[in-house]
Model the fold of this input.
Amino acid sequence: MTDTQQDTGHEGTGVRAEDAIDAGTAEAFLSHDESLRHAPGPYFGAYGGRWMPESLIAALDELQDTFDTAKADPGFTAQVAELNRNYAGRPSLLTEAQRFAEHCGGVRVFLKREDLNHTGSHKINNVLGQALLAKRMGKTRVIAETGAGQHGVASATAAALLGLECVVYMGAEDTRRQALNVARMQLLGATVIPVTNGSQTLKDAINEALRDWVANVETTHYLLGTAAGAHPFPSMVRYFHEVIGDEAREQILEQTGKLPDAVCACVGGGSNAIGMFHGFLDDRDVALYGFEAGGDGVETGRHAATITLGRPGVLHGARSYLMQDDDGQTMESHSISAGLDYPGVGPEHAYLADIGRAHYEPITDAEAMDAFKILSQTEGIIPAIETAHALAGAIKVGQRLAADLGPGEKASDKIVVINLSGRGDKDVATAAEYFDLLPDDSAEQEIAQEGEQL
Amino acid sequence: MTTHPATTASTGPATGSKAAAAIEKARSEGRAALIGYLPAGFPDVQTTIDAGIAMAENGVDLIEIGIPYSDPVMDGHVIQEATVEALDKGFTVPRIFDVVEGITSATNAAVLVMTYWNPVMRMGVRAFAERLAAAGGAGLITPDLVPDEASEWLAASDEFGLDRVFLVAPSTSPQRMQATVDASRGFVYAVSVMGVTGARTSVGAAARAVVDAAHAAGAERVCVGLGVSSSAQVREIGAYSDGVIVGTALVAALRDGGVDGVAELTRELSTGTGKATA
Done:
């Protein structure tokens, strides 16, 4: 599979001499059988760590201790498993997508149906786990950041279920554009605070949540929504999402009798991808692909392809790839998908990119929207626009696999698993506007022009 | 950090540390040091230099100049607004050295740079340290860099003889207090309250406990910041600490009254530094 990656001639994957921090690691990885699973942090190669104000270190220590104790407590793992099964609806299905596969060079394609979870995406796995930890720490309040509103809705859901106060920080611009998701959080009992600082986007919502956390850390847990941030968040968020890859690996073996050739996921901060990848990290013949938001195209500067074009730096507590200017100021990211619109990425992804275990490529808005339409019309499944990036990437991966068959191999011998990380109900207005499906004078069009994601 | 050669840290003599020298000079005059903060480039670089000089001429012993940064998680609204304006007007990181040089060449005040870590990392820690030393800077205050992650900075600050001021907070454990005091040089920055920058009517009892803990861990110089805005607070905090840091109130004074406003507030604040009146 590394051949496939090189064939793309893409600069964003693998080790770049200029920024390679730990080039020796790649060789060590390739020549030894060291397991990559269950990496505990705080460091993933040269990435991760705790680039945080001292005021918050004690809270991070407390969280880490609580998490370590909980993981080893059968009572806790049983509680998580019970909620996953009887509240979130796990295990999620693995669905073969035969008509969609025709667009992927004829390889077999399977969808890991995280869209079928309660609240409609993988996000529920993490919020249930962290909310349980908040209770174990005796905290009565959780705070969360959100861009489009998905993690905010999931956090409000978990808080309602477990009787916690919930405050969600959201860029002021986003609260206006996502008015229905704001209402949804409020219906669930959460308070939504519009953030008017800085660029008023997701990164500023995280900044404001951190400011709240510093001031209220005695009573409050910061329920971070992705596998980024300071230790222990990256390894902890991954832990709660590992169920995705574990289930998928078991299901694909059961349905096909073998492991897939490739696994595809979309990457913003990278939580669904790391949960999916984790199940296959030590299966060295399974190629792992993360698809970042290429926005208008990486050459335009309007994108969120952090690993592809970012450089190592620190943001929100972790060292990782980062979209930054020559001064180290964070740059604004752009994507049609609010969930991928973040200028950073989880540190474990940065490490997996450097050592060549996973490959990261950008997908443009247009490519993602094509794939969005194809899946909807071939499988009867409307994906989240975030997820559509993974689908568009899988089309490319499938076509490459089909073009690169060995002697006697058929395309249908090849298997690609895609993490269908979320459903597209929230994106219907955006998509309808994009495909020009709305009458000029409809109320929906007015909403869609504002970028509303229902 | 454990492999780093032990230095004089905040526990040792003032030799070589500009920040320590400034605080010791105040101590020899029977008072706590007054430390003033302004962000670089607000409203422009020359005004920052002029305001820094005005602070030095009106009773500030040590000046902190902040680097405007896109994601200032430890700052409240007043400082955020000032730094956003500085960035909007085109402030770039290398200009920090112009500000430092402009102030140090005109006054005897020690000048520390307060910065979030990514801009330093982007320039290269050693390159940044070298330029800061060449500009006459005393060292760095690092609000989002803890000693655990600071190996590069520990080495570079040793190489160029720069102060490294780490923060301690009410939430800091005894072990971390010891490690942070040991890693610091110049002084230890005691965060008075759990929160972000911004004027408060009271900084509460937590501040004194943090200062006492830092002193007990061997720190000779512990200065208190966050929330201080009046000479009365300076007097109260200066009675148990070695220096008092004022930020937001000075930024607001510059915003509302220009360099004259800064000079006036500095004079008012400095009336609080005499220990005898505490």
